[in-house]
Design goal:
Number of domains: 1
Strand content: over 45%
CATH architecture: Roll
CATH topology: Nuclear Transport Factor 2, Chain: A
Number of helices: 3
Order of helices and strands: HHEEHEEEE
Strand order of the largest sheet: 2-1-6-5-4-3
Number of strands: 6
Radius of gyration: 13 Å
Largest sheet: 6 strands, mixed
Distance between the termini: 31 Å
Helix content: 25-40%
Length: 120
């Protein structure tokens, strides 16, 4: 299911990650989206993003996303601030993401840039 609003991208990301549905996760990204890894290195494109998310999705973690701010940037762009936490294998990780969402020609929204550790 595609996202009808920028915020729904994060709600669906949470749902698909918790279910371990890698295909649905990757489909939330634009074809040439950028994903920023924890070490700050960007990867580009769905196949690279798939490789980065595969291990997490396989663990079927308990991910919670909390969108704390949405900044509309024109009619087709939005910046989201997402404070998230994830528990898997008895360990918990947290982050403060900054995400750029773009409305697609079909009206649905996708990640154009996802930086899960983008804010201090």
């Amino acid at each position: 299911m595609p996202a009808r609003t920028p915020e729904e991208c994060d709600r669906l990301f949470e749902q698909y990650m918790n279910a371990g549905d890698l295909d649905a996760l990757v489909n939330l990204y634009e074809a040439e989206a950028t994903f920023v890894q924890q070490d700050g290195q960007p990867v580009r494109g769905r196949e690279s993003i798939r490789q980065d998310l595969a291990g997490f999705a396989a663990m079927k973690p308990e991910l919670q996303c909390n969108v704390v701010k949405v900044v509309p940037a024109g009619g087709d762009l939005a910046v989201l601030y997402n404070d998230w936490s994830m528990t898997a294998g008895g360990q918990t990780a947290t982050g403060k993401a900054i995400e750029l969402m773009r409305r697609q020609p079909d009206g649905m929204w996708r990640f154009a840039l996802d930086a899960p550790f983008g804010r201090d």
